Amino acid sequence: MDIKTMPKDIATELLRYLAEHEEFASADKNLDDISAADVKVLLRELADGLSREAASENKAAYDVKGSRDISKGAKDIISCLSPREERKLLTAFGLIDKK
Question: How many domains does the chain have?
Fold first, then answer.
């Protein structure tokens, strides 16, 4: 998969996973000014930025909160989903086009 075509929500999950589970011991050993903690903060910030970008793209595609076609109960359930899951569900029901 090319990084340019990777869905942003998947890239976000990968960055958060790396920030949580990798040690980055070589950063402490090989980089004078950058610690492993700095690398983790950087990855989390990148993940947060990508997450906001993906969410704004999804909101532009279909506004679940503003829709009168979806019941309050369905909106509550959809609000618990990740952006990727929400897009899959809305696509399955034909509310948004497949990308």
Answer: 2
